[in-house]
Write a structure and sequence with these properties.
Number of domains of chain B: 2
Order of helices and strands of chain A: EEHEEHEHHEEEEEEEE
Oligomer: heterodimer
Number of helices of chain B: 2
Structural class of chain A: alpha+beta
Number of domains of chain A: 2
Radius of gyration of chain A: 19 Å
Number of strands of chain B: 20
Strand order of the largest sheet of chain B: 12-19-16-17-14-13-20
Number of helices of chain A: 4
CATH superfamily of the largest domain in chain A: Cyclophilin-like
Helix content of chain A: 10-25%
Order of helices and strands of chain B: EEHEEEEEEEEEEEEEEEEEHE
Shape of chain B: globular
Helix content of chain B: under 10%
Number of strands of chain A: 13
Strand order of the largest sheet of chain A: 5-13-6-7-10-9-12
Strand content of chain A: 25-35%
Largest sheet of chain A: 7 strands, mixed
CATH topology of the largest domain in chain A: Cyclophilin
Structural class of chain B: mainly beta
Largest sheet of chain B: 7 strands, mixed, barrel
Radius of gyration of chain B: 19 Å
CATH architecture of the largest domain in chain A: Beta Barrel
């Protein structure tokens, strides 16, 4: 059992009249692992409609006529103390990538390296799914080499093709569907990130390890 | 193949099979989707004699023609499209009976955006992840994961019992949205906003007396329909039924759930206001 002081007391915030946000005092891998466990637990609490983990935060959407903000806040504070910070399932998924993305050269220029170096650095990383969001099955992957950290594109694209492997800020991700997007596209994969016939439907779950393999 | 079906002759701008939505999966990135104006959708089902939550068709700005392949009972609610059945006017918000072979025509509505067509037995499409509603982002649910097209044959469920009520008084849309303030709430009040043409089922973009901000992005966090995001341009985006599950823009407010239907019915160019309310 980890000492509570290591993480500090989380901050609670009300959003609208039917959502509560828990924000970690300190960000980091261990705090994020606690959020996964807390999210999975809270999803089964009565009158909780959704429990969504973000970057260092957890939001519950609740039935406001059946449970109060204060009751959920107290419940979350209690559960946070007891939450485990070990990953739920330590699965590793390999994603084969064709590194021929539209932005590969732009990224190489911005990072002052050759495009081959961008590929080598991206494919060498050990990534962890921090959370899933934005689109069905879109996994936000921590673990991008700091030499590849770049702000998002100033002009987002109106259509990024499904399967695009992209980077932005300190993260990497794979677009599961055609969608608008502002990340830098460095490659593409044929892997289906989301399949409603699968259980769970999203290929990548929080805590999963991911490796990219150049093909 | 059952003969209980309708055939789409003209599909209109965006006609979707909808129900209440797909819940409990936002942590996998799956949006709620579902009827944009839930009150009108519920009323249509009630008038058709359907159970609450039966799948219906949501039509944007009318201009739809369809033929019934079977005897049926139906109701139209939401935006009034001056519908005609075999050339005869049919009242909205009222139960109607129809014979096989009849042709229903919806014209462009004078006010409002979305019309709901419920037919007894409901639209019979497979349930995907707990819902029959269309998710356009993931191309799942509804009719083959897409909007209806001319030539589509849409199957219906088994006939239901007669409705308890055969007419419902339509609500009035005031286009004043009760809203809970968030950090940047002061930028919303005491001014009028216009619904921009870049509005869709994911979000409504609003134009008006806005000020740019340089607060940057917040750490990614969950967002829900009704949340009002403030991108750096300062022009608010109200998230709608198909909203993405996470976002990073600062929040200005959250529209009270009961008022979201009015925004769903506000046409491009409509003027809306936000009214701050306490919890």
């Amino acid at each position: 059992m980890t000492d509570m002081t290591e993480f500090g007391t989380p901050n609670f915030r009300r959003v609208g009249d039917a959502a509560i946000v828990l924000e970690c005092a300190t960000l980091g891998a261990a705090a994020q692992r606690r959020l996964w466990g807390l999210g999975s637990a809270a999803r089964n609490w009565p009158h909780v409609r959704e429990a969504v983990v973000g970057a260092g935060n957890l939001t519950l959407a609740f039935e406001r006529d059946r449970v109060s903000y204060e009751a959920l806040r107290d419940e979350l504070a209690r559960a946070w103390k007891d939450a485990s910070d070990t990953a739920a399932r330590g699965r590793t998924t390999e994603i084969p990538v064709h590194y021929d993305g539209e932005d590969l050269q732009t990224v190489a220029d911005a990072c002052e390296m050759r495009s081959d170096d961008v590929i080598a650095l991206h494919a060498a990383g050990n990534y962890i799914v921090a959370f899933v969001g934005f689109l069905p099955g879109f996994a936000y992957l921590d673990g991008l080499d700091t030499r590849l950290h770049l702000p998002r594109r100033t002009q987002p694209r109106t259509r990024v093709p499904a399967g695009s492997v992209a980077i932005a800020g300190a993260q990497s991700g794979i677009y599961p569907f055609d969608s608008p997007g502002g990340w830098h596209i460095i490659g593409k994969t044929a892997v289906h990130m989301f399949d409603p016939g699968r259980e769970p439907a999203a290929l990548l779950q929080p805590g999963d390890a991911v490796r990219f393999v150049a093909v | 193949m059952s003969d209980r079906a309708v055939r789409i002759e003209r599909a209109g701008l965006q006609s979707l099979v909808v129900d209440h939505g797909r819940f409990g999966l936002r942590h996998e990135g799956v949006g709620w989707c579902g009827a944009m104006d839930r009150g009108s959708y519920d009323a249509a089902n009630a008038l058709a004699g359907n159970a609450c939550g039966a799948a219906a068709i949501e039509v944007v700005l009318g201009d739809v023609v369809l033929t019934f392949a079977c005897d049926a009972r139906f109701a139209l609610t939401g935006a009034d499209c001056n519908a005609e059945l075999d050339g005869e006017p049919v009242r909205a918000w009222t139960t109607h009976r129809v014979r096989a072979g009849s042709r229903l025509m919806l014209q462009r509505p004078v006010a409002w955006m979305r019309t709901y067509l419920a037919i007894d037995g409901g639209i019979d499409v497979p349930c995907v992840l707990g819902s029959r509603t269309t998710d356009l982002l993931a191309s799942m649910g509804g009719f083959a994961g897409r909007a209806l097209r001319s030539g589509d044959r849409v199957e219906l469920g088994e006939p239901t019992q007669a409705p308890l009520q055969t007419t419902i008084e339509p609500p009035r849309a005031a286009f004043v949205l009760r809203t809970h303030a968030q950090a940047l709430g002061d930028r919303l009040w005491h001014r009028t906003w216009t619904v921009d043409h870049q509005s869709n089922r994911m979000g409504y973009r609003l134009r008006g007396d806005s000020q740019p901000h340089d607060l940057g992005a917040l750490p990614s966090h969950a967002v829900f329909p009704g949340f009002i995001q403030l991108p750096p341009s300062g022009e608010p985006i109200v998230l709608m039924s198909d909203a993405q599950t996470t976002g990073g823009y600062p929040l200005a407010g959250v529209v009270v759930d009961e008022d979201m239907w009015m925004l769903a019915q506000a046409p491009i160019g409509a003027t809306i206001r936000f009214a701050e309310v306490r919890r």
